[in-house]
Design goal:
By secondary structure, the protein is mainly beta. The chain folds into two domains: 2-339, Tachylectin-2, Chain A, CATH 2.115.10.20; 346-494, Sandwich (Jelly Rolls), CATH 2.60.120.560. It has one helix and 32 strands.
Length: 496
């Protein structure tokens, strides 16, 4: 109830009611969560409560640029259609005066429990800059949340000796048979990332258990936004490292998100890492988080933007969006990602071309637009390069290019209308798969939503997510092959 919430939160909620309705619908994506107003980054509190999905997000409602963090809030019954709710958390306590930063949520004892990082940021009387990151609890009914009187519930002093008190954040909570567990990002004595495990019986009092894994300066520096979950016969530790160096085409420079595959002994709480892969190979992806649905699906959502290449147009009243929620499966020792099945309920206007020969630049009747899905199966690899050019007209285009000899897929947004010096091209290794007849085929599932593209290759074996803020009138799609390819194409529109 508004009279019981803080003045800081009340101010945001009053502003939201006006600003959300002032942003034209046509400016927003059709089926991706975007900032209700201002700026968003990390997904937070991705959870099921009262039989619907709740998604919170890092939120600066007063500007399109990053600033003191709040928790924005939206809900969905099917992961596709989202309703914005009032802002859930604002920095209004001594332990979160510098911002309410990333965290997670869980249903417990009939309440929705949020656990987040509070930032204490102040100068003491002697001029010393006191900065700390601490973990805090808020409980509520799905709309309004009250912060615990005992906050903070975990501080950096609980971490192993030498751990950073300043870099200690992003708690991910889950429930096991013997109680609640929490994984938090931290910086170890060597200056690189580590993930700490905590345990609680009531969500209010926590004890340190162990270090789940460490970077040891191999996979970037600080490890942010951890998630820890079983998938098939593996345990997955998912983290987002900062300051990472490129390693071939598997990892790129800067901020990454990675899967660490391994085995986990619940008795000893030992995680044995076996291999590491990228989560997403595109230009815009960071800080993913997962939830477990009532029907047992592991669903992932990430922030579809880059810290180092924010390309939101100056004219927009918002900045930041999320990926399509994706179902994770473990197949053939690899993590596959596919758009949630619920998206298929919104398909309309199917257009189909079977065994089509593509030679040179080819535009196809009824295949154009900026809100659609393309399913491609490419065979007959008698070419060097095959391209799909989209968001195109005489001035603009973004394209995907498959290089047969290098077995490499490239996304390139150089000519999408960007007027700043940012990263515009990224590649990933991609070998054709075999169909049921042992024939080589390259499968691409492409989701376009006005200003974004998500490419799911070979049934979700690898994914690329990227933004391009091209004017919407550029809606042509052209297929181009330097020699000859045989292609099956299905196109769907969406009614959301």
């Amino acid at each position: 109830m508004e009279h019981s919430i803080s003045p800081q939160l009340l101010k945001v909620r009053r502003m939201e009611r006006k600003q959300i309705h002032d942003i034209p619908k046509e400016e927003r994506p059709a089926y991706h969560v975007s900032a209700p107003t201002g700026w968003i980054n990390d997904p937070n509190g991705f959870s099921i409560f009262q039989e619907q999905c709740h998604l919170f997000f890092q939120y600066h409602p007063f500007s399109k640029k990053w600033g003191p963090m709040h928790w924005g809030h939206c809900t969905s019954k099917d992961f596709i259609k989202w309703e914005y709710l009032p802002c859930a958390l604002a920095p209004d306590k001594s332990y979160d005066e510098g911002g309410c930063y990333s965290g997670s949520a869980i249903e417990a004892n009939g309440e929705h429990v949020l656990i987040y990082t509070g930032v204490i940021d102040r100068y003491l009387d002697d001029g010393f800059h006191y900065y700390r990151q601490v973990q805090c609890i808020a409980k509520g009914d799905g709309i309004d949340y009250r912060k615990n009187e005992q906050n903070p519930v975990i501080t950096g002093e609980s971490a192993p000796a030498g751990s950073s008190l300043e870099d200690f954040r992003d708690p991910k909570v889950w429930k096991e048979e013997d109680g609640y567990y929490l994984a938090a990002g931290s910086r170890s004595e060597d200056g690189s990332g580590q993930i700490l495990l905590y345990r609680s019986q009531n969500l209010d009092q926590w004890e340190y258990v162990t270090v789940l894994d460490q970077s040891r300066n191999k996979y970037g520096k600080m490890w942010e936004c951890p998630d820890f979950f079983p998938l098939g016969d593996k345990q997955i530790l998912m983290v987002s490292p900062q300051d990472m160096r490129a390693f071939g085409l598997e990892f790129h420079n800067g901020n990454n998100s990675i899967f660490l595959y391994g085995q986990y002994d619940k008795q000893s709480h030992q995680f044995q890492r076996e291999k590491v892969t990228s989560v997403d190979y595109g230009l815009d992806f960071y800080a993913p988080q997962t939830l477990l649905t009532r029907d047992g699906r592991r669903i992932l959502i990430g922030w579809m933007q880059s810290w180092d290449a924010n390309i939101t147009p100056v004219s927009f009243q918002w900045s930041g969006m999320m990926t399509i929620p994706r179902e994770l499966t473990l197949e053939h020792g690899k993590i596959y990602q596919r758009p949630v099945k619920e998206l298929e309920n919104y398909r309309t206007d199917m257009v189909r071309y079977d065994h089509l020969q593509i030679t040179g630049a080819t535009a196809l009747e009824n295949i154009q637009g900026r809100v659609l899905e393309l399913l491609l199966e490419i065979t007959g690899f008698e070419f060097e390069h095959f391209q799909i050019r989209f968001a195109r007209n005489h001035e603009y285009e973004t394209f995907l290019q498959y290089s047969r000899r290098k077995e490499c897929l490239t996304i390139d947004r150089t000519h999408s209308g960007i007027d700043r010096d940012v990263v515009c091209r990224r590649k990933m290794e991609l070998a054709p798969m075999e169909d049921e007849n042992g024939k080589k085929v390259l499968k691409l599932r492409i989701l376009l939503d006005k200003y974004s593209v998500e490419v799911f290759a070979n049934d979700g074996e690898k994914v690329m997510s990227s933004l391009f803020y091209t004017p919407l009138e550029a809606d042509e799609i052209v297929f181009d092959c330097d020699q000859t390819a045989w292609v099956n194409i299905i196109k769907y529109s969406f009614e959301i």
